Each structure stands twice: as structure tokens, then as C-alpha cells.
């Protein structure tokens, strides 16, 4: 008989890192569980107690160097945290926007900017959201019109608007992508883009809540900037050279979204498995029926494959490699697998799946959203086709 194949040392180390984060997270979600997050959603309030406990346990500091008050690690660790929270039924979009918003600052900001804007987020004292999407530009962020211009006093004046900004009401800071040179005035579309950190108490910022029907504690907003005055240290990196830093953040966002999809997909699938073992309308558990069993088994296989891609991409990202293709694939596969899982859960529950008390249909909007946001899967396929396969650009 052949000897069993043992996982590599690096794989064992990776699994240990993920397992440690999952165990620590369970210490939080045992106190603040699915019932808690549903109550926060019902009351339209931010899960402050959960967030504070994550900070107390050092989990919010994951991916931030210890010298800046963080817990160390990289995007892999905070992706594992996002997955662990979702696996307990308490996904948080705020961790996605916080995680991606901090990456460009840590990689491109000055030590003073990191201490000012990032360090307080490690304890939960301050919260950060992210703003890039605009009503008219949509997925084509290079066509954004939000403009920051020198104000003659060493700082900047910001005007424009953003849309689908998760958690804007509850954030202390917002990382904003804006043009410092209009799109029509640059030779290359990636030129003239800059990153700014806004204090949300700055005059001239107006929020308009959107009527988005997704079961999360965070709400989404249209954000208007009307002559918002920014100090010089609000600019992260060099003016007009923010595109690369922006994509660093967006790649981490893909991975954090994938983590949420994986966790919530497994959470939905676990509900399907448990129900199918107990439900016996014809005397046998419906989980023994291949029509349902195979559907659940396929969803599990898809989730595990997406999980391998996600953590492989995270390792590449943290190693400083070009992780764009793998991050896009991870988000694509993770969101598709998670939707397959919740669809299996709905089908397994039958009519009860649409009874909110069974808490299955409540999972569907967020998982389905992940096929559209933070970027739609069609654009991910375009990226893979063009940049991985070398096919002609289709749009």
C-alpha cells in the first residue's frame, strides 16, 4: 500500500494560521452570534459590541504591522477572519472596506499617516470605509469625475459624489479615490488619480441612504462632496500616481469578499445538511435523496476549490507578487460557489426556505450580491480572458 501523502510544511503552517484565527474568532462569535447580528439589522444599528470585542481580541489589527499597533500578518489573516465571522453567520461588510482601505495607506503612506489613520482602527476606536464607485462611471472607475484641486493653502478642495458606499454613516474616516487631473486631460487613463483620507466630520460631506435590500448591519450610501477642504496630509502617496495603490487595495478587497463568500456559503450549506437529516416526509431523511445530496456535495466541492484559490492568492499578495489574476479568480469562484450553496439550502428547505424564521432566504441577498460587488463577475471573466489568456479586449 502506498504511504499517505502528507501536506507540505508550508501548507501545514498555512492551515495552522487559519485555524488559530478561527479559534480566536469563535471566542467572539460565541458571545455575538447570528441572533445578535439579526437584531442589529432589525434595529438599524452598527454592531458596536462585536466590533469592540474584535478589537479587544486583537483581530481588527490583523494585517497591520505590530510597530503601528497591529497584530501582524497580512491579507491572508484578515481574509481568514472575514471567513470565520461569516462561517458563524455574522458577516460584516465593514471588515471588507476597512481591510482594503488600510492597504494603500500602510503601503504608501508616511509613518505619521499610518499612525493617525490606521493605528486607531486596530482597536476599533476608529472605523474606516472606502469610496470609489460613482453613479455615472460605475465599473469604469477611470471615468470618475470626483475632483480634488489644490486650495492654495497647501491642502485640497474635493467636489463630486460616490455611490454604494458601505458603512459611510458609521465610519470615522473614508479613503476616497479622486481625480487630481480630469480624465480628458491625461494621456493614459491611469494617470491623474489620487487617494485621500477624509475625516467624516469635515464640513461639506452629505450622506443619502440607499434602499438596498441586503441583510447586513451596514447600510449603503450616496455620498456628496461639496467644497470639502482637506489638509495636506490627507493625500496618500504622490498626487496623480494613485492608480497602483488603488489596485493594491482592490485586490485585497477581492480576497476579503471571497472570504465572506466562503464562510457564509458553508454556513448556508450546514443549515441544509442539518435540515436534510431531520426532514422525513416519506420516512427517510431527504438528505439521502441524490437529487438533493448531489447538489449539496457539488456546492461543497466548489467551496473547497475556491478556498484553495483564495488562500493561494492571499499568500501571493502578502509575498509582494502580482496577485491580480488569482485574486480575481478567487472572488469569482468564491461567489459562484457560495450562491450554489445557498441555492442548495433553499431547495432543500422547500417552502420553509422562504420563511424568514428559518433564516435561509435571509442569506440569499448578500451571497447573490457578491456576484455583483465589489466587482461583477463578468468583469472578472473579462480580466481573465484578456490578462491571463491573452485574448482581445472585449469592451
UniProtKB/TrEMBL annotation:
Sequence intervals crossing the membrane: none
Residue span(s) of domain Acyl-CoA dehydrogenase/oxidase C-terminal: 240-388
Keyword hit for Oxidoreductase: yes
Cofactor names: FAD
Molecular function GO terms recorded: acyl-CoA dehydrogenase activity; flavin adenine dinucleotide binding
Ranges where the Acyl-CoA oxidase/dehydrogenase middle domain occurs: 129-227
Domain Acyl-CoA dehydrogenase/oxidase N-terminal, residue spans: 19-125
Keywords from the named record: FAD, Flavoprotein, Oxidoreductase
UniProt cross-references to Pfam families, sorted A to Z: Acyl-CoA_dh_1, Acyl-CoA_dh_M, Acyl-CoA_dh_N
Domain of life: Bacteria
Sequence similarity: Belongs to the acyl-CoA dehydrogenase family.
UniProt-recorded name of the protein: Acyl-CoA dehydrogenase
Species of provenance: Extensimonas vulgaris
